[in-house]
Q: What sequence folds into this?
């Protein structure tokens, strides 16, 4: 089998659908659409089994490629799952949310990475389990990654050291930067703390080019 088929359904947050669902009397008493909705809600929920619960939202993330599954049908399916006890529906901060009941009974904890939820828990809920803490509650980082600010540290611009230097400390206008006027503008922005990363790299390249030119003329 080609590698692309091996990775077609790969997920960074795999979800477990227990085989007991196939013989669960409560679930089997629900409509087929409700069962499929539950499976797809499980696949879309966060690490605490939680997600927004508006039917329009659920339809969008679970049935976006099924035009025959309308928002009304999804709302009815959610109602069935709430009555059967598989979902907890609640209001918080003016929005509707869904919590999959007994989430960690379904998913287990062994060997899992579980980040905090960005969504509020149901009233009285005490079953959250967190094994990883992100830098921000709504930001999940893959292991070993670094913030963008660490990948491209800002370039420190030093003042000219010789009185005979120009205002920028550069002997010749750097190629492709707009000349000394452009460098003057970049240094002024740097002093005001307004320099962007792209401008910092541009200024650093100009400084390096000037230093190389001076080294070759000695």
A:
């Amino acid at each position: 089998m080609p590698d692309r088929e091996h990775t077609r359904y790969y997920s960074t947050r795999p979800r477990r659908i227990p085989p007991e669902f196939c013989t669960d009397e409560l679930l089997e008493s629900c409509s087929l659409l409700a069962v499929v909705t539950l499976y797809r809600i499980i696949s879309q929920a966060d690490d605490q089994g939680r997600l927004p619960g508006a039917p329009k939202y659920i339809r969008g993330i679970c049935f976006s490629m099924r035009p025959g599954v309308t928002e009304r049908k999804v709302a009815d399916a959610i109602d069935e799952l709430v009555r059967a006890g598989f979902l907890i529906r609640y209001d918080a901060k003016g929005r509707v949310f869904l919590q999959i009941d007994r989430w960690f009974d379904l998913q287990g904890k062994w060997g899992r990475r579980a980040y905090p939820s960005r969504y509020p828990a149901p009233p009285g809920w005490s079953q959250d389990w967190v094994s990883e803490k992100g830098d921000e509650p709504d930001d999940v980082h893959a292991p070993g990654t670094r913030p963008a600010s660490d990948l491209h540290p800002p370039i420190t611009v030093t003042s000219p050291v010789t009185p005979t230097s120009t205002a920028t400390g550069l002997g010749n206008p750097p190629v492709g930067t707009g000349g000394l006027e452009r460098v003057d503008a970049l240094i002024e922005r740097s002093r005001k703390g307004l320099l962007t990363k792209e401008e910092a790299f541009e200024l650093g390249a100009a400084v390096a080019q000037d230093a190389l030119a001076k080294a070759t003329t000695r």
Q: What stands out?
A: Residues 151-217 form one domain.
